Amino acid sequence: MTDQPTTIELSVPDGRAEAYVAGPDDGSAPGVLFFMDAYGLRPQIAGMAQRIAGWGYAVLAPNVFHRHGPVADLVDDRQHAMERVRGLTAEHLAADAPSYLSALRDRCADGGVGTTGYCMGARLAVRTATAHPDEVVAVGGFHGGGLATEEPDSPHLGLARARAEFVFGHADQDRSMPPQAVGRLGDALSAAGVLFINDVYAGAPHGYTMNDTPAYHEESAERHYRVLESLLGRTLR
Fold it and tell me: Can you spell out the DSSP letters for 35-66?
């Protein structure tokens, strides 16, 4: 059992990736794969992972930017965050996700796992669920961007393969997820026949869960924790 998030290293196709882990590590608790936002692994992400672990889950939050360097080299470099986001392709995630799931499996109970993602991490959570439908049974996506675009590889286009329940909490007036995109995502979720919530949080800016940024919006952040805890309880317990 880890009382506070600790850092481990795991093998990925391109080498090694760090990850925060929190909660039981003895296979006694369901697993949650946590996809960070564009600013990467840092104390804020550690605190969020620990809060989720406190609900009774084994949590793993990988450094998805491992190709750009270790956490220590990236944590204070927000200037190039969007360059790293643009450099993280769907193909990179497809290569890495099995390693993330395997590392989580080494720590968590048998059965389906959940995933939650923030900002660009919401896209990663959706893609992981659609690529691994037999493993991922719950997906949370909060202030996500680019979830339902007109690009041929848009995340929403894979939803027909998913078997998870989805909960989305979109930021109000988010340029990376405008109303038409929220509607397009809702239509795709309906067509896929999955259980879902596709809400817009009024007054919430993009990044509303992150209390180490000016975008933090406490009311919406706490709402997100309530709906995420409920989702995980319904699907993993």
Answer: E--TT-SSHHHHHHHHHHHTTT-EEEEE-TTG
Q: How far is CA 180 from CA 69, 147, 177, 185, in A?
A: 36, 11, 8, 9
Domain of residue 167: give its range: 2-236
The residues, any chain, with a CB within 8 Å of residue 165's CB and separated by 6 or more, are 137, 138, 139, 194, 195, 196, 231, 234, 235
Number of folded domains that form the chain:
1
Number of Cβ atoms within 10 Å of the Cβ of 14: 12
| CATH number for 46 | 3.40.50.1820
pTM of the model: 0.97
Task: Express each pLDDT in 59-84 by its tens digit.
Answer: 999 999 999 999 999 988 998 999 99
